[in-house]
Amino acid sequence: MDKYYSWLQHPGKRLIAGVLAHAVFTAIAITGIFYFFKFVWDIHLGSFQWTLLISIIVTMAISLVLHSISFLKSWRTLAVESERMKKEVISSKYESLKNQVNPHFLFNSLNALSNLVYEDQDQAVKFIKKLSDVYRYVLESRDKDLVELSTELKFAESYLFLQKIRYGESLITSIDVRNTDHYNIPPLALQMLLENAIKHNVISADEPLHMSLYLEDGYLMVVNNLQKKNIIKGESSEIGLSNIKERYSFLTDRPVTISNKNQNFAVGLPLLK
């Protein structure tokens, strides 16, 4: 029966076919035995109809038990296999999301450096030295699912130092994050938010960009004033927020919060213990 009707593909048909097949086989076997005893050895086994009925009932009861056991074994096999496949898919997706971060960071850093070389070569030298330290962290954290919040904050400070070399007093930052012990976040999640804010907003002496980092209700809040600039389609890699939200979806049920109020754009990253 398993060759024609699989428990995994057609459980209903498999059950009905199995029970009916047992019933038919029982009816044929009982009929053969009954008449064999009667005509060959002249032994009467009682009422043929009652014997056949009771035999089929008993057979169907036993058949249901056996088929239930068979179904549960098949279901357990399927459940284990399905869970294994889900974990493999999730692991694959998460690794893919993490791998997006490194080239994204490097591309934008080199893009910033290319502009700075023409504007101020001395600053470009400082930028390169600091960039080497920053990218070392990127390489060290690429195989990690989570990093300590304090470590990511130190990296963010180094990253902002690079940006201040480029923008000077036009970029104003405030970091008020204390009691970071036992908290973790995905690596480079904070950096990507800072990078997005710098990339998508006007930064100038007349319109400085203000960025604030602080803790609120178990979230790391990243807030900046909105002064959007026009970005040519295709110039942005469109990774940023979607990457962060997808990575968090594999780590916690708490969502990444996003709000746009009073000309401020705020993103909240859930802190993980």
Quick recap of the structure?
This protein is of the alpha+beta class and 273 residues long.
Protein architecture, described:
Keywords: Kinase, Membrane, Transferase, Transmembrane, Transmembrane helix. This is Putative two-component system sensor protein histidine kinase. It comes from Fulvivirga imtechensis AK7. The chain is built from six helices and seven strands; from the N terminus they run αααβαββαββαββ. The strands form two sheets. A five-stranded mixed sheet has the order 2-4-5-7-6, with helices on one face. A two-stranded antiparallel ribbon has the order 1-3. The model is unreliable at 234-238 (pLDDT under 50). The chain is α+β, with helices and mostly antiparallel strands. The longest helix has 72 residues, at 48-119. α3 packs antiparallel against α4 (149-167). The chain has two domains: 11-82, no CATH class; 120-270, Heat Shock Protein 90, CATH 3.30.565.
Q: Order of strands in the sheet with the most strands?
A: 2-4-5-7-6
Distance between the termini: 52 Å
Tell me the number of structural domains: 2
Q: Would you list the SSEs in sequence order as H and E?
A: HHHEHEEHEEHEE
Strand residues, percent: 5-15%
The CATH architecture term of the largest domain is: 2-Layer Sandwich
Helicity level: 55-70%
Q: SS-based structural class? A: alpha+beta
Biggest sheet, open or closed, and with what strands and sense? 5 strands, mixed
CATH fold descriptor of the largest domain: Heat Shock Protein 90
Transmembrane segments: 15-36, 48-66
GO cellular component, one term: plasma membrane
Membrane topology: Multi-pass membrane protein
Domain Signal transduction histidine kinase internal region: 93-171
